[in-house]
Design brief:
By secondary structure, the chain is mostly beta strands. It contains 1 helix and 7 strands, in the order ββββββαβ.
Length: 97
């Protein structure tokens, strides 16, 4: 078993980006609250990677749309959640490996 991240919370501050061009990775991530994410990163991918992610919440900086995903255990689950919530992640990736 590898590293486990229990929880990461980035604050939402009006008019400010909480996350862009950063990566978070562990074998398992229990909870990620990423605040306001700038999905466009000039083509350079960034995001979160784990074998499983218990919950991930964020808001799109360009639209203000907030979303929460739970029980991310496969790439198929991630793809379905993104489609169902209408999230266009551009350069932001949620990788389940």
């Amino acid at each position: 078993m590898g590293a486990v991240i229990s929880s990461i919370t980035l604050k939402k501050v009006k008019g400010a980006i909480s996350m862009v061009n950063s990566d978070i990775a562990a074998s398992r991530i229990n909870r990620l609250s990423l605040g306001i994410v700038q999905f466009s990163n000039s083509g350079a991918t960034f995001g979160a990677e784990a074998n499983s992610i218990g919950s991930l919440s964020a808001a799109d900086s360009s639209t203000g749309q907030s979303f929460t995903f739970t029980k991310l255990t496969s790439a198929a689950v991630v793809a379905a959640d993104l489609t169902n919530k209408g999230v266009m992640p551009q350069d932001f990736e949620i990788r389940i490996v």
